[in-house]
Design a protein that fits this description.
- The chain is mainly α and 164 residues long.
- It has one domain.
- The chain is built from three helices and no strands.
- Helix 2 packs across helix 3.
Amino acid sequence: MPQIAQLGEFYSSQIFWLLVFFGITFFVVGRGMVPKVMDTVASRDKQIADDLKAAEQARAAADAEEEAWRARENANRAVAQGLIADARAKAAAETSARLSAAQGVIDARVVEAETRIAQARRSAAAEIEDVAADATRDILSRVAGLSLDEAAVRAAVKENLVHG
């Protein structure tokens, strides 16, 4: 076979050129491009790690700021609750004072009304006594034909009104 016979002649030159191309490829790719790619990958890894570290620090700072805000908010809420309690106490005191003043006015009016009622009772009792005395004297003069002293009639009417 003639193709196999030629193998020896071309085999050594093909191996030579194969080694030359692999060598060139090794030095160009392996020694030139791969270190640059590896440096780029390492740089990106470092950048990602630095970004993650910065994000973690920013999150910690945000958490600290939020905690400080919550503390301020709780303190402000406590102050507001104190102000509300003071306002309620002040309003209660003012209301109590107003009620006390109003109660004083009402008590004075009640005393005045009771005094007027007592006077009206006395006046009504006196009028009833006068009317009863006049009626008794008229009845005695018409029925019995007696004419009695006004003082005696009033005393008898008064005694009967008091003792019933």
